[in-house]
Amino acid sequence: MLGDTTREADLRERGGAPPGRGSGLIGVADMTPYVRDTLRRSTMPHRGTWLIWTVLAVVVTFSQHADGGSWSVAMSVAHAITNGFVLALAIRFGTGGIGELEVMLTALAGAGVAGWLLVDDPLVATGCVVAAG
Known about the structure:
The protein is mostly helical. Helix content is 75%, strand content 0%.
């Protein structure tokens, strides 16, 4: 493509950036001990917390993709998937629920999405996710 550096063109030819793919794999691997401990019932994830983290990870994933992210989105996707999986485990094996704080933080993520749609800038959503996180 016009304006590509040699490195960018080389990465595109090889099918993407190895660090991007690697970060996605690491994102899945780093959750393995937590999932194992949850299934063994030695860890009890909080439902409200994992709901927030899942919502935030999904918002960041879509925001990065909309802002032109390519392989860098792999880590966000990995977090969204693994957080969603732990949320499902938390619903079954976890503790707690959704309190006032969880509602406020989820609303902040929603405000970021609304701001993104209003001004057509996905960085607004990412900013709200950072503030909520």
